[in-house]
């Protein structure tokens, strides 16, 4: 059963995404297909591919604000860490999502 929008004349909102609304569906499909292909290689292939996809997403230009926020938090929490170690930790956290 499809849900009806309250106001059919109103355009769908973008919810702050940098991607245009018309591109969000195809982008999600590409990501799902990208994760589905490694299932042919078993669980290890899936987890490796998902981790790499997450790290790639974390370092993408459209995710710069979130990555910078994570780096600021890591600077505050771990002032003795090098900038490279903080960046690696932040990107690895995207690999676990």
Describe the structure in brief.
The chain is an all-alpha fold. It has helices at 21-36, 43-58, 64-77, 83-95.
What is the general shape? Answer: flat
State the low-pLDDT regions, or none.
Answer: none
Termini separation: 31 Å
Helix-and-strand structural type: mainly alpha
Individual helix count: 4
Return the average pLDDT rounded to an integer: 84
Helix content: 55-70%
Order of helices and strands: HHHH
* Main pleated-sheet profile: none
What fraction of the residues are assigned to beta strands by DSSP?
under 5%
Oligomeric nature of the chains:
single chain
Write down the Rg: 18 Å
Say how many strands there are: 0
Structural overview:
With 97 residues, the protein is mainly alpha-helical. The chain has a domain at 39-95. The chain contains four helices and no strands. The protein has helices spanning 21-36, 43-58, 64-77, 83-95. Helix 2 packs across helix 4 (83-95). The longest helix is centred in the first third of the chain and has 16 residues, at 21-36. The protein is flat, with a radius of gyration of 18 Å. It starts with 20 loop residues before the first helix and ends with a helix.
């Amino acid at each position: 059963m499809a849900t009806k929008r309250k106001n059919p004349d109103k355009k769908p909102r973008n919810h702050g995404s940098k991607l245009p609304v018309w591109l969000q569906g195809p982008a999600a499909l590409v990501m799902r297909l990208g994760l589905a292909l490694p299932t042919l290689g078993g669980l290890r292939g899936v987890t490796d591919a998902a981790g790499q996809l997450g790290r790639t997403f974390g370092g993408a230009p459209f995710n710069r604000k979130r990555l910078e926020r994570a780096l600021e938090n890591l600077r505050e929490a771990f002032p003795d860490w090098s900038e490279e170690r903080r960046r690696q930790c932040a990107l690895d956290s995207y690999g676990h999502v």
